[in-house]
């Protein structure tokens, strides 16, 4: 007698069906909960590792900012002799101590040994550079006849042939000591050590993320296998009670095969399964998306792209922000003469030089074609001379051709955000200053504030 005939003859035992459904439901729920706990643990560890990396990375950036802050105070002090700059310098050295704090943070992490060693080299280099800065400061103080200054500088003794120099000669020597090639070579080595530290941190977090991603993929694979198993088990029950669950089950099988989220329908157990699957499917997709920063960076130049630029705008503190809009001079002629491959190399070199000359807290963006934007944070309008020097240095460097890369120059329009609330208005001001720069011979920088004065 066939099964169909047996069923037709004897009927279906509802008790047996209910007991079978209860057993299957309990079995499915237990396995699903175990899997959700596993995936939750993997995701939690992934978030912890990401947060740890961000904390360590921020510590290295703090070291970069502290080093650059000391350099800028020293250079400005040799130019102006302003004792407030000297006070700010030693406040960073003795009170804020961001370099030492950054080193202590990395020292606490047993996994970041290589990153710590590179940061230690950077700190050692920074301390060594301070001896040169102390000497330059002492020259300026002696030249200006200042007798009240920090104890660290009292311990500095000028060389006999420097001590007898005229005041203006001492100041000239001090400026050259913090602006010459030897000084910047030491700065470059410090930056390279900090860059190596960041690279080791990236390697560390990448290995951790790969391990967790592998665990997440395994969990999802198990979930898919489990869903297939559950589908088979449910299908056997549906064969007896097809009018209750057959349509939701068939729809779920199609969606699983298409690797998409499930439709929340059918029985309560199936709805619970679908919601849990969708929750972790979405969680996995979002967590992986956060690990990829390429969406906000330009593939050619490795600086922020327009999307990254637009993400930065809402967070700007306008009263302490300078915006620079930059164009490569006669870039179309470069493309027409040398070809687009060379044009791309020119853009890469411009981006590289911009990153080198601007601070770690400044943002370099390529917003289209040969147009760049640099957002300089924590600057007052009075610091425009520093911007002028930077642009002059950049154009000097770009004027020297390299193999397969011709000489080029840039035109810059600069505007400060003081008194503004809309970043788009700040961009318009900088863009207008750029227009004035191009109209007056290119190869340099113009400031929107000068345009306003001329119109007034």
Give an overview in words.
Mean pLDDT is 83; it is low at 6-11. The protein has two domains: 1-292, no CATH class; 306-455, Reverse transcriptase/Diguanylate cyclase domain (Alpha-Beta Plaits, 2-Layer Sandwich), CATH 3.30.70. The protein has a five-stranded mixed beta sheet. It is an alpha+beta fold. It has helices at 3-10, 14-80, 83-96, 98-107, 113-144, 151-154, 160-163, 167-177, 181-240, 242-257, 268-290, 306-312, 331-338, 340-357, 384-398, 423-439, 448-455; strands at residues 321-328, 363-368, 371-377, 410-416, 444-447. The protein is 71% helix and 7% strand.
Residue fraction in strands: 5-15%
Write the H/E string, N to C. HHHHHHHHHHHHEHHEEHEHEH
Number of domains: 2
Structural class: alpha+beta
- Going across the biggest sheet, name each strand in turn: 2-3-1-4-5
Stretches with pLDDT under 50, minimum 5 residues: 6-11
Q: Give the strand tally.
A: 5
**Shape from CA axes?**
elongated
Helix content: over 70%
The largest sheet is: 5 strands, mixed
> What's the number of helices?
17
Instruction: Round the Cα radius of gyration to an integer and report it.
Output: 32 Å
Q: What value does the average pLDDT take?
A: 83
Distance between the termini: 105 Å
């Amino acid at each position: 007698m066939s099964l169909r005939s047996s069923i037709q003859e004897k009927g279906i035992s509802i008790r047996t069906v209910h007991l079978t459904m209860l057993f299957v439901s309990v079995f499915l729920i237990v396995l699903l909960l175990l899997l959700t706990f596993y995936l939750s643990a993997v995701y939690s560890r992934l978030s912890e590792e990401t947060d740890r990396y961000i904390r360590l990375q921020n510590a290295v950036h703090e070291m970069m900012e502290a080093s650059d802050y000391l350099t800028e105070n020293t250079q400005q002090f040799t130019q102006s002799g302003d004792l407030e700059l000297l006070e700010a310098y030693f406040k960073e050295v003795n009170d804020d101590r961001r370099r030492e704090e950054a080193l202590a943070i990395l020292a606490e992490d047993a996994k970041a040994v290589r990153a710590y060693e590179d940061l230690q080299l950077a700190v050692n280099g920074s301390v060594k550079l301070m001896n040169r800065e102390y000497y330059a400061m002492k020259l300026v103080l002696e030249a200006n006849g200042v007798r009240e200054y920090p104890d660290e500088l009292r311990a500095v003794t000028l060389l006999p042939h420097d001590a007898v120099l005229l005041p203006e000669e001492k100041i000239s020597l001090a400026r050259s000591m913090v602006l010459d090639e030897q000084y910047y070579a030491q700065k470059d080595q410090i930056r390279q050590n900090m860059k190596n530290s960041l690279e080791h941190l990236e390697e560390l977090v990448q290995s951790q993320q790969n391990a967790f991603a592998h665990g997440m993929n395994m969990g999802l694979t198990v979930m898919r296998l489990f869903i297939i198993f559950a589908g088979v088990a449910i299908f056997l029950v549906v064969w007896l009670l097809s009018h209750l669950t057959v349509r939701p089950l068939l729809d779920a099988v199609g969606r699983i095969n298409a690797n998409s989220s499930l439709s929340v329908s059918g029985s309560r157990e199936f709805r619970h399964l679908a919601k849990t699957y969708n929750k972790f499917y979405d969680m996995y997709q979002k967590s992986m998306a956060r690990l990829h920063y390429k969406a906000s960076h330009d593939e050619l130049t490795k600086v922020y792209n327009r999307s990254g630029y637009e993400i930065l705008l809402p967070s700007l503190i306008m009263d302490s922000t300078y915006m620079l809009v930059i164009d490569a001079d006669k870039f179309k002629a470069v493309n027409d003469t040398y070809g687009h491959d060379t044009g791309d190399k020119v853009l890469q070199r411009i981006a590289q030089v911009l990153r080198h000359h601007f601070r770690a807290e400044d943002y370099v963006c390529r917003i289209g074609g040969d147009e760049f934007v640099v957002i300089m944070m924590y600057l007052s309008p009075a610091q425009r001379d520093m911007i002028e020097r930077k642009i002059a240095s950049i154009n000097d460097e770009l004027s020297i051709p390299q193999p397969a890369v011709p000489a080029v120059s840039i035109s810059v329009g600069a505007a400060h955000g003081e008194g503004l609330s809309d970043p788009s208005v700040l961009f318009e001001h900088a863009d207008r200053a750029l227009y004035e720069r191009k109209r007056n011979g290119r190869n340099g920088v113009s400031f929107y504030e000068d345009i306003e004065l001329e119109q007034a």
